[in-house]
Design brief:
Distance between the termini of chain B: 36 Å
Strand content of chain B: over 45%
Structural class of chain A: mainly beta
Number of helices of chain A: 0
Shape of chain A: globular
Order of helices and strands of chain A: EEEEEEEEEEE
Helix content of chain A: under 10%
Helix content of chain B: under 10%
Oligomer: heterodimer
Radius of gyration of chain B: 13 Å
Structural class of chain B: mainly beta
Largest sheet of chain B: 6 strands, mixed
Largest sheet of chain A: 7 strands, mixed
Chain lengths: ~120, ~110
Amino acid sequence: GAGVSQTPSNKVTEKGKYVELRCDPISGHTALYWYRQSLGQGPEFLIYFQGTGAADDSGLPNDRFFAVRPEGSVSTLKIQRTERGDSAVYLCASSLVGGFGGHNEQFFGPGTRLTVL
Amino acid sequence: SQQGEEDPQALSIQEGENATMNCSYKTSINNLQWYRQNSGRGLVHLILIRSNEREKHSGRLRVTLDTSKKSSSLLITASRAADTASYFCATAGMEYGNKLVFGAGTILRVKS
């Protein structure tokens, strides 16, 4: 079956521009997560959706970052006024149900590599 | 923030040998998970061990958890070239609001 997909796979933009990154979770998964992974590091949590609502957005680094999931399926991560420090791989994951404390395996997409020049 | 720290940072072994990777963390946890990431690809969940478990097996993988030492180890037996990847531990616990917090990873290279 189809896994988590992310588009685009690569995005090159200029400093100051606006970008949108898309995530298509596994059908039926209610929980969706965004992570950011810098070179040589593990993924860092950004935001977690349960259904349509952001259950935890404490990982978003600043107000330039925003994410939506209007219909409880596809999610879009939006970055305004991009900076060179935003360059990283942005990973999306989904799980059947939400939360981290339980036993909900997260299935990751291949990521979007964002490069800000 | 990254609470898990993997050790070693990089490991190179011959095919057929066993590979052991360690993970240490700082706060109390609900569970600890190990993931594999092949170059340029997404993360694959390998195994989850709960805080009240001490050891878990899955195929050629063996994970141990010592909550008193706040450490875990991942053992891959009879390694194969296809096991070449980065391996990450990730913890979930109330201290971090139940976020999944990843370490920096161990790069494993299995030479054939």
